[in-house]
Predict the 3D structure of the following.
Amino acid sequence: MTDPDLGLGEGDRVEVVVEAPAHGGHCVARLDGRVLFVRHALPGERVTAEITEVHRTFVRADAIEIHEPSPDRVEPPCPYAHPGGCGGCDLQHVASDAQLRWKAAVVAEQLRRLAKTSFPVRVEALPNAGSPLLGWRSRVRYAVDAAGRAGLLQHRSHQVVPIDRCRIAHPAIQRLDLLSRQWPDDDAIEVTASTGGDLAVLTRPAGGGRLPEDDPADTASAAGRRKRLAGPDEVAEEAVGRRWSVPPEGFWQVHPAAADTLAAAVVELLRPAEGETAWDLYGGAGLFAAAVAAHTRARITLVESSPVGCAAARANLTDLPTVEVVEARVETALQRRRITGPVDLVVLDPPRAGAGARVVRGIAGARPRAVAYVACDPAALARDVGTFLGLGWRLTDLRAFDCFPMTQHVECVALLEPAGA
Ligand SMILES: C[S@@+](CC[C@H](N)C(=O)[O-])C[C@H]1O[C@@H](n2cnc3c(N)ncnc32)[C@H](O)[C@@H]1O
């Protein structure tokens, strides 16, 4: 497709000066009034950008030549992180402290644009054994191409890039020989290296449906039939002072330090007191329910739509009789009054799309004292924060964590409180 105003199409090259980072792992640039989203670039750089996609209101491009590099530019540690290469990482060319600033700018900009509110944002790095930026990814889904080779996907594509190893994957995953083998009968290979020391390999037999794009922020929870190739049926995870047993196809935080870091932030922001009731919405195996229950010792209702997640929550929280697990979509549970207020505290941790206005209104209607919103997508968070603000609530605190180094992804925990609280 060719842009009718610019007269430019895919493969054409333009020279631009790159501006601020934007949501999605790229920076903004402008050419004759048209917005370009440029990957592999940094703010302030003058680059030659090759156009990769033309849309009605914007153009996507890759920086292929850097004429004036930013002081924040570094040599990518991964040889597959380049235009046309693996799409898993967006920020391999960005220095570690600049990655934190990049993500903080994106979260602040989304809040300004979508929630119409200014809030100072600082992104905190997570501890990791070895390198802070590499070797953290505890769940990897390799895609398999028509020739039976496993690899990771190109950016916004289902094209498989064969690799020798993924540098951000957990060292135990990098040591496996899965990528040198042929996989004629499979669409994908899913590997989990758990904090409890287990290693599990599942395969998805061919024909199980289209796979999602490669996304290091995604746990291996995409639906579909799987076969266990190696490792236990359930892997051990360690978080909030407990040992968990979770099926590798169920949701668990991907960075080894994320579960403890996020649970600690939720508790610090909510300050749960003995006797307070709570909801853990989009609760998964019950990480936040367990963290809050240790302080409240009162009724907690966990709502989770996946049967695998609910089974894990029931099995892992047997010592917490005050936790009730409701298998339902949050929107349905609220609408059909399977959960009803009043409630004192709410934790919600929705998937990438966010909770949406109906769920936010349902939460506000239960009149909690405080809400901790755990968010893996700053745009969805900002939209939902905007709904809370429109209902008279206040955004009173926000922590942000680099749970996905080298990628554009960032995890936030926002504290929302009703006006007058
Ligand atoms: C980001 S994960 C959070 C899980 C858990 N809070 C944790 O940190 O381990 C989101 C969870 O929401 C579940 N989910 C997705 N859509 C849902 C919906 N509409 N209603 C309820 N649960 C949903 C997913 O199965 C997943 O377990």
Notes: The helical segments are 96-114, 171-174, 258-270, 287-296, 307-316, 330-335, 357-365, 378-390.
